[in-house]
Specification:
Blueprint: H1 8-15, E1 25-28, E2 31-34, H2 37-45, E3 50-51, H3 64-72, H4 89-96, H5 102-130, E4 132-134, H6 135-140, H7 142-152, H8 159-174, H9 179-202, H10 206-217, H11 221-234, H12 237-252, H13 254-261, H14 267-277, E5 284-288, E6 292-294, E7 297-299, E8 304-307, H15 309-312, H16 348-368, E9 369-373, E10 390-393
Parallel strand pairs: 2-8
Antiparallel strand pairs: 1-2, 3-5, 4-10, 5-8, 6-7, 9-10
Bound molecules: protoporphyrin IX containing FE (HEM).
């Protein structure tokens, strides 16, 4: 039973049918869904009317038990990056930007290539040994976290701790939840947030940069922890989800996979088409700052506007064959997987490079395998959270 009673049709549209676009704008429950690419982009570019402040609001309102648990861990999530349309946003964004500039990302390329080759080789060894291997667990899950740790510096924890915290955070803030599950997640997310607070006081890398610039930018400790918290989740888990969804898709698109293996399709075109059709961030939210009319539909002030990024990528007005995976087709790069405007994803270049590198390293392995267990994606407003992608070699029993 979900904490907030949600009618089945509403739940389906909000949490499962991410691509269905019945109308360019439609009210579903307490959200207004926007599906056409043109309108989604217009909203993203108009920060005055559509503010980002609700980006990290809990989809299932927090029950008292969860709130108490979070408070017990000293959890606070102020408006810093993705959920900040205020005057401090440009300064915080400018502080982070150098970590993700094209020149800096290029210096990380050799490391990412080596890492991708190593993880693919380990997955191949497991396949040989066990007859099956989970490509999500062995490649997609660890790679982006190891890269992020190298770039910004995170607390020295076991990979499992950070990965399961990040998935818990995506469930806590974006999934329909029972009170018991919400409480459980609040405890896990709160505990890692407290860990980040200790790290924010003494840690190196981005934590030190944020501390050094705190007074200049008017940031307090909660703001620093908030930035680290957002990056620890969004800066790696999204890319893991994308890699798994893209692997699964490529294993269905054998011609595309063959074209990659023989050099007839560029990994850049394949990843662009993957982002269009398999984006992990299926929606993103804004809140109206005034009464507004969008494509003839009145939306009141203070309303939650859910931008269907996944549906926008399949807009027939933008793409020649919206449902087909055709690298390089007209409109392929006009997806909004990374948003647009003042909050456009700062890690877009990094995520794209990680995906291109990993696809190149894994193409032969994917080509030899078939899927024996597809990913399961639990109900969620904004994220696809695959649990596994198990493959075996063609011809294996
Ligand atoms: C495939 C992987 C990824 C996808 C699909 C993705 C998607 C998004 C989306 C949709 C937004 C909101 C954009 C908007 O409001 O206009 C966003 C924001 C953001 N992303 Fe990503 N992201 C990915 C990977 C990354 C990575 C690897 C990093 C950094 C290491 C990162 C850092 C950020 C930051 C800092 C913001 C907030 C920017 C701001 O508010 O100024 N993302 N991302």
């Amino acid at each position: 039973m979900s904490a907030v009673p949600v009618e089945e049709g509403v739940a389906r549209l909000l949490y499962r049918d991410w691509y269905a676009a019945d109308a360019p704008v439609q009210q579903v429950g307490r959200h207004w869904l926007v599906s056409s690419r043109d309108l989604v982009r217009r909203v993203l570019l108009d920060q005055e009317t559509f503010a980002a402040e609700n980006a990290l609001d809990a989809e299932t309102p927090m029950e008292v038990a969860a709130l108490r648990t979070l408070a017990g861990h000293g959890f606070r999530l102020p408006h810093t990056l993705a959920n900040n349309s205020g005057p401090t946003h440009p300064g915080i964004r400018a502080l982070l930007a150098p970590y993700f500039s094209p020149a800096v990302i290029a210096t990380h390329r050799p490391f990412i290539e080596r890492l991708a080759r190593r993880l693919v080789a380990e997955a191949a060894q497991r396949l040989e040994r066990d007859g099956i291997v989970d490509l999500h667990a062995t490649i997609a899950r660890p790679l982006p976290l190891l890269v992020l740790d190298r770039i910004i510096g995170l607390p020295p924890d076991d990979i499992e701790v950070v990965k399961s915290f990040a998935v818990a955070a995506l469930e806590l803030f974006w999934a329909p939840l029972t009170p018991a599950r919400q409480w459980e997640l609040a405890d896990q997310v709160g505990a890692y947030h407290a860990r980040l607070r200790r790290f924010a006081r003494t840690g190196d890398g981005l934590a030190a940069t944020l501390r050094d610039n705190a007074s200049l930018l008017g940031l307090d400790e909660d703001d620093i922890v908030g930035v680290l918290f957002f990056l620890a989740v969004a800066g790696q888990e999204t890319t893991s989800q994308f890699l798994t969804a893209l692997f699964a898709r490529l294993m269905r698109e054998r011609q595309v996979l063959d074209a990659v293996r023989t050099g007839r399709a560029s990994t850049a075109d394949v990843v662009a088409e993957g982002l269009r059709l398999e984006t992990p961030v299926v929606t993103w939210r804004r809140v109206t700052t005034r009464d507004v009319v969008l494509a003839g539909t009145p939306i009141p002030r203070g309303a939650s506007v859910v931008l269907r990024l996944a549906a926008a990528g399949r807009d027939p007005d933008e793409v020649e064959y919206p449902e087909a995976f055709l690298p390089g087709q007209r409109g392929s790069r006009r997806h909004l997987a990374f948003g647009a405007g003042p909050h456009r994803c700062l890690g877009a270049l990094l995520a794209t490079m990680e995906a291109e590198t990993t696809v190149a390293a894994a193409a032969d392995l994917l080509g030899r395998c078939r899927i024996v267990r597809w990913p399961h994606y639990p109900p969620n407003l904004s994220f696809r959270i695959p649990d596994a992608l198990v493959v075996s070699e063609y011809g294996a029993a």
